[in-house]
């Protein structure tokens, strides 16, 4: 009789069980596909919301959904979260006592579970196989599916046998999920599991809520302390390279009154799980850890991830920062970079051999290039690494996109010196040697090759060795120098030869000019919903109290996002509480009164009324604001209102170039600028060069300046190009 009733829609379950209003990208598509019983492979970043893709179908299927996961530590956590939302879920793995194991088996046999989480080895045990032969399995979900591929970074042999398991339930639809998969791994997953048809869903790996920042590391400990001041009472992870560093840094932070604990493979397993548990339960805010930490962590309210040392690869880095902000609220990712750290890593890499060494060098080069890039949006190289093109020029949430335009200096003289020295040494030496020649060093290598005879010997004493090396890396980055992967020797590119011949100017930065300060900008309050901090604190301690009483992590009760909404909209009835994101029917029953018991008296005392909550926040409108700084908007609007460039310079006490930079950003963010022609007065290039520049923009696009700059052999300065570009943007 029951089956005759209209089946609830995925949307209804999303709201009534999980309390959410809208699906995240591709969730709905995957769910629809699974419900239609088409095998599917879903690739979504960490925090993308993979779990709902099988949890919602599980509630709609008559039979059981089996979820295979290698992360035994997470099963308990997921089952607790589901049960708090009223979903009957169980798990079977080696952490259960024999009694509890049998009890869970019996419950499954009685049909008392919609979802069953198992480790791969448990699934393939005779006991579980015969249990599952007795019940109807409607869906087989393989979580962390990349583990099945030998090409993946986390191959687990026991995953290979899942192909067998797949064959045992030919009627069940199969859903494979992963956050990391190169095309090769993807193909491997599909063929190993003999997924029928090719229903692949690949979500964007862009995590909009992460603010991404790289800062030069000067005095790491002091920089970190300043950074942490902005995250009082918030959870975060600090990654270090070595165990010793972890111990030292966590002790240092603890001394300064931070609640921090260490985590690394050198600690005994009991200490490790105690520390991890304390972090998950919000008893401890900061985890100082090696990369051993994080795999088994589901904590959604990690507000920052700091890389105190350079990560070994972009892939690892992206996975680590991905642990921040899973709840979708803003989170900050900071990498403290020093070239010394890169050199340290290189030392370790050099102890490897052959292909392994080569691969490691390439990965390190990529992350160094990323860290040293002060111009392009951080998201571009990160997403490109995952084969995704990021097309927006300004993401609004990375250091480079929100920085005041970097002051590019004329570095023509040092660049020419360096390039010609590379040429003089026969394009057969690395950067350090070239710098030594310029500095007039008398070391053995120089004397052996007779390089003290060169015309460029000793002509570069105005810069330090460090500055020369930095310049060299910039020249590589700008495409003037080529570096041999194997031997690290430098040679000139065609661009460099032409630039030298035509005496083109070089613009860049010398390291002394970039400061070691970490930006005070953060995603923080700007994107976070405005809310009542005092009420939020009260709600948080209520949540902690309930969580401790139930012996679960606080986020099992409600996420931070849910509490933020409560502290913003002051819901004072059960009905309005149900309107808050994350409050479903069952959680309302279980916890509603406890939270209303906090909100109501708080509001009555202060005479605060409920405020309406729009279900779909006006995201687009906010985005433009996030994409351009406050100052940029002010300047852009004042200019459009008729304020002259001169008065703007005076009001803001800045140079004309700075005002023009703001106007460019304003225009790039999609705003109209009035009277662009008037700005052309600030261009110093000749009329012919102006024409040529406009033609170059026309042909090459106006998104970037460098192509046009190169096309004109550097005859038109970057400052001029910026202004000329405005008239292209205005069209
Ligand atoms: P993943 O497994 O892809 O890392 P999860 O499934 O753990 O991601 O989801 C991350 C967080 O986002 C969880 O706290 C989850 O409850 C929340 N979430 C998932 N889907 C939605 C949605 N549609 N709306 C709001 N929150 C969501
Ligand atoms: Zn950006």
Describe this protein's structure:
The chain is of the alpha/beta class. The protein folds into five domains: about 10-200, P-loop containing nucleotide triphosphate hydrolases (Rossmann fold, 3-Layer(aba) Sandwich), CATH 3.40.50.300; about 210-400, Rossmann fold; about 410-510, Arc Repressor Mutant, subunit A; about 535-615, Orthogonal Bundle (DNA polymerase, domain 1), CATH 1.10.150.80; about 615-730. Helix content is about 50%, strand content about 10%. The chain has a seven-stranded parallel sheet with strand order 3-4-2-5-6-1-7, with helices on both faces. A six-stranded parallel sheet has the order 8-13-12-9-11-10, with helices on both faces. A two-stranded antiparallel ribbon has the order 14-17. The longest helix has 22 residues, at about 585-605. It is globular. Residues about 520-525 and about 615-625 have low confidence and may be disordered. It binds adenosine-5'-diphosphate (ADP) and zinc ion (ZN).
Query: What topology, given as strand order, has the largest sheet?
Result: 3-4-2-5-6-1-7
Structural class: alpha/beta
Quote the beta fraction: 5-15%
CATH fold-level label of the largest domain: Rossmann fold
Q: Unreliable segments (pLDDT under 50, ≥5 consecutive)?
A: 522-526, 616-627
Span between N and C termini? 65 Å
CATH superfamily of the largest domain: P-loop containing nucleotide triphosphate hydrolases
Helix content: 40-55%
Give the domain tally.
5
User: What's the CATH architecture name of the largest domain?
Assistant: 3-Layer(aba) Sandwich
CATH class assignment of the largest domain: Alpha Beta
Count the E strands.
17
Alpha-carbon Rg, integer: 29 Å
The main pleated sheet reads as: 7 strands, parallel
Indicate the overall shape.
globular
Mean pLDDT: 87
User: Helical segment tally?
Assistant: 37
